[in-house]
Amino acid sequence: MKYLKISLLSLAVASALAGCGDDDNTTSASASAAVKSVEFSSMPAPTVAADMAKTYSASVAKVTYADGTSKDFPLTYNKLFGVKDKVGGNANAAGQLYDHKMTPIMDPMGKPVIAETPDANSLLKIGSNLFLVSHLEYDWILSDGSEAYKKEGWYTRMPMSMILTGITQGTDGKLSVKSQKPLDFAGVDGLWIPCFGSQTPWNTHLGSEEDYDLQYNPLTTGAATTTAGVKALTEKYFNNEKIANPYHYGFIPEVTVKEDGSTTIVKHYSMGRGTWEQSKVMPDGKTAYMGDDGTHGFMLMYVADKAGDLSSGTIYASKWTQTSADAGGKANLTWVKLGSGTDKEIKALADVATFESIFDAVAPAEGACPTGYTRVRAGSTADECLTVKAGQEKAAAFLESRRYAALKGATTEFTKMEGVAVNAADKKLYMAMSSIRDSMTDDAKEPINDIKLKKSSSGATYTADLKSGQKDTSGAAINSDYVASNMYVETALLGEDLAAADAFGNTSNVDKIANPDNIFFAEKMRTLFIGEDSGMHVNNFVWAYNVDTKKLSRVLSGVAGAEHNGLQVAEDMNGHTYIMSNNQHHGDWATGKNTEVDKALATIDKFDADFGYIGGLPAIK
What we know:
mainly beta; about 10% helix; disordered N terminus
């Protein structure tokens, strides 16, 4: 195995790890000895059915100390609990969904509606206690096509939730569940498709709302999905006691956990509305970047008025000026100011706004718009002719942020923009683009056609340099020292499509990253961790990429078909390091090429899904 070297400035290993197994080169290194370097071995991709049908790590972290001795720390994957498990005194399954009165939602057959899609994790140390905030992304077990569901007019999406799990940490570093409860989002009108999340510099959890179903325009197919989403929220969350409002969803929720396990929850309307995969706050405590998932998405930057307070600020959308189409492309970025506002005032606008109150809209005629209208393509493949009604600029900026960005000349051609991470020491931003296709390729029929790249279905993880002293496109200063000025792809972070599927059904090179999704940068390890959500790898992987040595290591393999999410790295949590990683959609794959693998996968419960972590690493200080 090749090792991924990690240069560390100042590290120590906790005494609790003194009993871990040593390799043949280890002498009597003290658990408190200074660490010189850490190396991750790259585990091979699984090739036998038994391995392809499980989640496991075969990577080893080799720690070398300042005195020249070394220890090997084998990594292991640990399941904390599954969505069907009742743990920590929770009377219901962990994945149970609830209405606005916290009554369990039941399906037409009288069975509990259990979400099988774990997503974001925030392992937080609050006082002397450990808590895990986790997302339940969406529900798809209900769309089984049975006559019972069809008769009831059942739902393709359900109101979702998060769960709070109290964590016990053993002396050996192993985590277990102490307590668990669902979080109540009734105070913020419920929650819609929470995807990836992050942790703020002030130790709270930032969630997301990836509201594909609530992006409405009466002239497009979005009207049908909005109607379905509103129906699900109205009937199953509010129990017909209130009609759901699409403009209450698509925002960034923040969860504050107190030492006694109590929580407060807010939605940050001032951060703008989109199909948010994630929001990540920069080290200044006020600049944040959002990943807008889907087709014809945009890159949004939020700058808060005050560090540590996301309730008031200014939003900007990027303009991509391409300098190269090769190897994922290169571009310079400039920023278009959309508007400034507070949570309170934008929420008040959301309470009364409709699409029709914000815009005048007509359908293009032969690709052209009438005088006074601007043709945009934002959030879907359909062109729209829009103009903002008088006095509705702020509502457009914050409630229809993507469309308003397009109207203002920003780029709305990103495809499948996913996780965001920051390298504070080097002032670099990382952004996962799950796939470079469709709106990111050269299309002369695009309203603007800013992005003109070569198609790469495997996607890439982009790097952006963060700078101070930047101005927006109007010439006004941007009050941030973390403004992304460009985008490019490092060689190892670009996927590689295969001309034809291999013997297992992979359509992307298994030794390169395919369809990056969740990403997290571990500052002390100088390592970018990347989790896949791929339809191109039979088994999805979690990778570790050292930004200094440029080496890429595979550290986790998931059950075939299962995506990896909930990625977070806690480098020193009471003397141990944890790489949080969940998985969903177990066995949701048939190779069609390998009988033994398909036979093994046929026995797997697709609706099983794990919350868990990679353990075995010493604390990195």
